[in-house]
Amino acid sequence: MNGPRLIRFAELPAGLAALTATARGMEEGRFSRASAEAFGELARATRLAGHIREVRNCISISPDVPSGPDDADCRFVAGYLFGHDLRTGQGAGERPAVAMHGSLAWWPLASGRYAVFGHQGPHDTLAQAWREVFDTALPAMGLQARAAPLDLMVDDRRDTPAQALRTEIWVPV
């Protein structure tokens, strides 16, 4: 695993929203179960609606500050972006027709400037990477987060070894 490093600043246009599913529960400092539950619900609904091939980005959002490593109420939000590619900044956001049920919702993303940090390693090491970004990198740069950050999954964990997984941590600043 490599520690997070600033790779660029990016601008998110106004009006972007991700189709999301939410699950709760952090166990031993990880969202493994909640992640599987939320992404499972999201993938099933998107496949059923016939829009899975239109997904441009796979993201996750952790809008809550955990009260500890076993915070049963801490939310994990899994999301898909349609039409706009975060990595290239190309395309307009889209909201394809998907039957909204369960925890599905359209989650508006904060527009404006983001500090984008690169991380390589298993997804269960992201909590430590976030701590490094918030405790060390942002203060050293004189920056402060203004909304919930998000993780952009660059690689698909189904066909990439865990140690090689690349994730971008997007922090609105």
TrEMBL record:
InterPro entries: AraC_E-bd (IPR010499), GyrI-like (IPR029442), Reg_factor_effector_dom_sf (IPR011256). SMART domains: AraC_E_bind. Residues 5-173 form the AraC effector-binding domain. This is GyrI-like domain-containing protein. Signal peptide: none annotated. It comes from Ideonella aquatica. Transmembrane segments: none annotated. Pfam families: GyrI-like. Gene3D superfamilies: Regulatory factor, effector binding domain.
